[in-house]
Design goal:
The complex is a heterotrimer.
Chain A: H1 2-39, E1 42-49, E2 52-59, H2 63-81, H3 89-95, E3 101-103, H4 106-121, H5 131-136, H6 154-161, E4 171-174, E5 179-182, H7 192-210, E6 214-219, E7 223-227, E8 231-236, E9 244-250, E10 255-260, E11 265-267, E12 273-275, E13 289-296, H8 299-312, H9 314-323, E14 327-332, E15 336-340, E16 345-347, E17 353-354
Chain B: H1 17-37, E1 43-48, E2 51-57, E3 62-65, E4 69-74, E5 77-83, H2 89-92, E6 102-105, E7 110-115, E8 122-124
Antiparallel strand pairs in B: 1-2, 1-7, 3-4, 4-5, 6-7
Chain C: H1 5-27, H2 42-53, H3 56-74, H4 80-100, H5 105-128, H6 137-161, H7 175-181
Amino acid sequence: METQKEESVQKKKFNYKILLRAVLALLFTALLIAVIILALYTDEKNGVIMGSEYSFVTKGVHSKLCNANLISLIEEKENLFSTEKENSDIFNINNAPKGEQVKISSETMGLLLLARELYVKTDGAFNIAIYPLIELWKFSPSTFNYAEKQPPSDSDIDSMLQYCKFDADTFILDKENLTVTKKYSESKLDPGAMVKGYNLDIARQNADDYGISYSLYSFGGSSILGYKKSYNIGIIDPNNKERVLGSLLLPENMCISTSGTYERFYKDSAGNIYHHILATDGKPSTSGITGVTVIGESGVLCDMISTAVIVMGLDKGRELMLEYGLTGIIVTQDNKYSTVGNIGFYPEIDDYIRI
Amino acid sequence: MTKKEKNFCKKPFSVWDIVIYIVFTVFVIISVIFVFIGEKGNTVEIYLDGKHLYSFELSTDRVIELEHNTVVIENGEVYISYADCPNKICLNSPPVSKAGRSISCLPNKLIVYISGDSDYDAVIGGGL
Amino acid sequence: MKLSTQKISKISALLTLVLILGIIENYFPPIIPLFPTLKLGLSNVIITCSIVIAGLFPTFIIVILKCFVLSLFTGNLSSLMYSLPAGILSLLISFLLLKTGLFSFPAVSAASAGIHNSVQIFVACVVMQSAVPLLYLPYLISLGMLTGVFTGFICFYLLKKLPDKFGGFKSRFNTEEGKAMKGKK
């Protein structure tokens, strides 16, 4: 009798222990799930900065702080790279008279040196100094609209060409003293073709600093970074903005950048179309390429190369991309496309020819 | 040391199993019902100066008057019908209807974005 | 809870089995291409057996370690988000259902597999901030239960054949063998 009572008492204690453990396990699970949900806390931001849209979707405990910081970081860059903001480095360069040594920040100098490197490498196809011509053609942010207009005359173009070189002669870049000296007062710079890609690199560094789980950054709808996660990106058909050419997988931590002739254009009274990507002759490029998508690790490089390839044409452009170890897609106006390097591209149209 | 006398079920099947199977069948039926009831509607999100202002159903026709722009939702499409910006580029953009696309009036810092389930995580190359 | 060396060696042996089976499972091509995350649940056989053999807490340790080691092995750290909650909750359900003594092993396994898959879907909903994964719920629950019944059977017959720690099933087989084996730890 006594042993039975003992046994039942022992059993009760035992049951209690098990219950306790089950409750502990449940609490532990709840804690784990809470941690997981915190790690997935999403912050979405959409807005306009530096004249183009941005869209961030970030996941991780510090998402909000990370995105807020990123926006303020990029707003700071306006003080360096904006052509319109008074006293920005670029503004100062553009409005300086010839011969004056304009003082700039080391960051801007870094960007200009990069632009110089590519200018030389692409024989002038990538040229941030064509801003005076861009203004002449009315493609700058303040002058552009879709209204019908006549293009500038050949003589106007020719006279502008000399100011629009980015060689060491026309623009003296002094690395040590951080100054830029123009040969002509009329010369102007516009780093617009680099800035969105540069923003991606800033975004990546910022995300590293904040230690977030993963995120997607998009600038101007033409430069995207998939941070710590691979994303499925749809490529809009440069020849038909209503539809998607196909999709590709953007690998983790890689940047993707597109440039296209469709971004800014207008027609004249005769119906000729003039787009904003000017070649070395100062006129819209006639290479036949309408859109380029470049994928690589460096955002600023992808942005620059995507513009350069449009001017250089299919063969030279592809060579350039491969030289820099980049992959991507080149689309021509006669409905042909070509993939460069090893990418997983899934076309969704059937009326294009792959070359 | 107490000897753990756990009395587990001795047979490969038991009458009570039916309870489990019924409970789960109910789960499955409920989830199937949810699948059919849940409508996937795309929403139009309006952001002004970085702040999310409104969300509207794409399926409902509507005219949204903002200080510098007017956004119209009509027939499952969104477009900007009025803008006081100097270049009026936004007025020339074709209407958008697919998730992931957007129309914006950059000078006025307006972004009209369609959120919803889209085949892609993001779309690139739409222009300005 | 005393972690005697015996217990530790028990846990390690079970954990090894679980890990081996988990890795083998991963190498199988997906049974149904539409649902690549659906697995055979072989490691769950060991886990369910371990509830009987070792008790709840040691099995709890095994489940957590299994999730971490497998995620490190496949190099996919984010799989922890899915496998941990799913594994823990299905373990608890298995334990509670088994403890009542009313349900047979196949049913318990089916229930735990159903819970496991459902939890994975709910986590996916949170991760993707969308209700899309819920579309898979009916399929994954039913298929999961099917594999669960299968693994439950395996578990039952395994336990039946197991010489020690199987007190309570004497009535099923040779009473002499059972009595002789009983009590050996």
